[in-house]
Amino acid sequence: MSEVEDKFQESKSSEESTDDSEEEDSEEEPKLKYERLTNGVTEILQNDAASCMTVHDKFLALGTHFGKVYLLDIQGNVTQKFEISQVKINQISLDESGEHVGICSEDGKVQVVGLYTREGFHENFDCPIKVVALHPQFSKSNNKQFVTGGNKLLLYERNWLNRWKTSILHEGEGTITNIKWRANLIAWANNVGVKIYDISTKQRITNVLRDNAGLRPDMYPCSLCWKDNATLIIGWGSSVMICAVKERDPTEMRDLPSRYVEIVSAFETEFFISGLAPLADQLVTLYYVKENSEHMDEEFRARPRLDIIQPLPENCEEISSDALTVRNFQDNECRDYRLEHSEGESLFYIISPKDIVVAKERDQDDHIDWLLDKKKYEEALMAAEISFKNIKRHDMQKIGMAYINHLVEKGDYDTAARKCQKVLGKNMELWENEVYRFKTIGQLKAISQYLPRGDLRLRPAIYEMILHEFLKTDYEGFATLIREWPGELYNNMTIVQAVNDHLKKDPSNSTLLKTLAELYTYDQRYDRALEIYLRLRHKDVYELIHKHDLFSSIEDKIVLLMDFDKEKAVDMLLDNEDKISTDRVVEELKDRPELLHVYLHKLFKRDHHKGQRFHERQISLYAEYDRPNLLPFLRDSTHCPLEKALEICQQRNFVEETVFLLSRMGNCRQALQMIMEELGNVDKAIEFAKEQDDAELWEDLISYSIDKPPFITGLLNNIGTHVDPILLIHRIKEGMEIPNLRDSLVKILQDYNLQILLREGCKKILVSDSLSLLQKMHRTQSRGVRVDEENICESCHTTILPSDTAQPFSVVVFHCRHMFHKECLPSGAVPGVQFCNICSAKRRGPGSGILEMKK
């Protein structure tokens, strides 16, 4: 197809007026694109005018008003020329193979010739022949049939004698203006309506009357088109009908044709129909627009329109509408336009006397063109990515670059930088060009986070340029890049030097210091990084020590680590005792007893024996910094010098700790005395006496409490299970007022009653269990014992049964299942009071009694 010479399509929304400026184009994408058929066609139409055209998948056949027929390739180049007549060619028909052509003209000439053979048919009629149609399979010998239409519809068939036989299929309803032959069905239109004839059954199966009876058939001819072998589309005036040819039920035939027609859709259009063609389940309609139409603006009046519509049962939905600028459209009438289509490629040819326009479905390249024209770059890029195998004129990278340029022009630098990842891919040259462009416009920060840092890497100078830019204006952004970028992307020493230069101006800047520590870490200068982290009290210091095994570097920095985070520091030191010994840690912390206590306390919690040589020092540390844990320490430690601990506790008047130490050293009376005198807590005194379980201690407690009514109450409430309450009650002086005495006595009685109930319950359980076990033992020992040839005597170790069981023999079987020959038992055994020799050697008990078996 040649280049476009004129603009054929002017977008127009069906709901909006086009009075506004051309900038207000419809946002709806057109469905078709248009090109003018040129080359040989241009020259032909300069001196002649097109009257008809037929389309084949391989070539075109064009008829003119001067009686010539041209065969054209699909680019419009003339391949063959026929001079048929001196007047208008009315119709050209091709068979499906494209090997035969049928031609009729206004002077009554009809020719059917083979393009590659010499066979042919020539006939002159005395009236104009308006239409001719070849059998679709005309090239086959048994289908040599064609029809012509003038005043009559004539069928020509070649018989076996190679002669043509003529049959009249229809006449008497005016001039036949259109014929379409599909498979075995012939559809034709005359002044009355449309008929369909079944060539296989030789039956006419329908008659569809025309709706617009007021229109002249010669000025507004009928358009016919077969969508498939059973669907006919009829357009006449402004009416469209879609007819489905269906098989009739055999039970309903009688004298009716075997097929019938059902109108599945019928609707009116705004304009007059000049042509119809199917497009999947939609219709392509060529409209003629009258000058006086009120539906069109002045700019578009009288221009033909090509619409795509969606047929519905009673109306249609407009999908797209294009007004076409064809040559001399002002001089044309409805009958001057024709619409032909190529089924194989969805090509639509709009034929007018002085112009032929080709419409085709827009492909993905056209879709991308439209998106780019509308500046919808992102959608264009997505469309190219999805259909990259089908696009021919576009390149994804070029579309992407156009998108990036558009975003930069808009000032949307962040989006433009983000799209670089997708568009530039692994093209290093493009990447570097974009970086320098962003530098020129002062937007290096925008592109920094999207630079490649994986398999594809730019030159180190690119990354260093961006880092220097951040270092000048944004310390936080600089630190972020250092964290995110691998250290191999740039020259580490160059950046370290740049950071040090900035630190000279601002030596306490924590962001720069932290970043410098990370750079030292990348450079494996861990000691420098550690110093900075400790100075900043940074949380990553512990991770750095562990990761790079820097324990030798922190032996003199233990106090700093403890000051930063005691818990983490102690855990790290204790987890790595093989690298930093306990003695070294204690030595470093000797001047900081509060930190030393934290360390030794955690060490003691992990293992009570590991730091035993420091337990004496820990007593004073606990007393000074952590008294709540002193008593648990004294309880758990077995290496603590008790005298030293007692001395410290007495000096500090730690009563509870002193009581514990006194009791542990065996001085329970003094400990009890301290509880009573210093604490004055009878409950603790009672608890202490219970722990010691010493009668003399109970006596001392009673003696001390006997003149103190509150203490007596406490003793009465708690003493019942350890000491006979009568001893205490007898010693209470008469007339002494004791708080809650009644309640205390009731409690004593209840406790006593509870003890009695417990004893009786235990006795019942014991008796029941004893009886049950005795019954079980009796059942077990009452069972018989199997004696056979496999059993042996436990004394002589021979078979227990004699070889001749008919002879008398005696066997002794004990309940423990040991067996003996009677003569093998000791001779001094008392009959009936024998015991198993084996079991009685161990013990005598149930199961060793005798069970004698005689025969």
TrEMBL record:
One of its GO terms (molecular function) is zinc ion binding. Gene3D superfamilies: Tetratricopeptide repeat domain (1.25.40.10), YVTN repeat-like/Quinoprotein amine dehydrogenase (2.130.10.10). CHCR repeats lie at residues 570-714. GO terms for biological process: autophagy; endosomal vesicle fusion; intracellular protein transport. It is found in: Cytoplasm, Cytosol; Early endosome membrane; Endosome membrane; Late endosome membrane. Residues 1-32 are annotated as: Disordered. SUPFAM superfamilies: TPR-like, WD40 repeat-like. It comes from the Eukaryota. SMART domains: CLH. It is a peripheral membrane protein. GO terms for cellular component: clathrin-coated vesicle; cytosol; early endosome membrane; Golgi apparatus; HOPS complex; late endosome membrane; lysosomal membrane. Residues 32-361 form the Vps41 beta-propeller domain. InterPro entries: Beta-prop_Vps41, Clathrin_H-chain/VPS_repeat, TPR-like_helical_dom_sf, Vps41, Vps41/Vps8, WD40/YVTN_repeat-like_dom_sf, WD40_repeat_dom_sf, Znf_RING_Vps41. Residues 791-841 form the Vps41 C-terminal RING finger domain. The keyword Aminoacyl-tRNA synthetase does not apply. Residues 16-28 have a biased composition (Acidic residues). It holds the Pfam family TPR_Vps41. The keyword Zinc-finger applies. Residues 1-15 have a biased composition (Basic and acidic residues). PROSITE patterns: CHCR. Keywords: Autophagy, Cytoplasm, Cytoplasmic vesicle, Endosome, Golgi apparatus, Lysosome, Membrane, Metal-binding, Protein transport, Transport, Zinc, Zinc-finger. Plays a role in vesicle-mediated protein trafficking to lysosomal compartments including the endocytic membrane transport pathways. Belongs to the VPS41 family. This is Vacuolar protein sorting-associated protein 41 homolog.
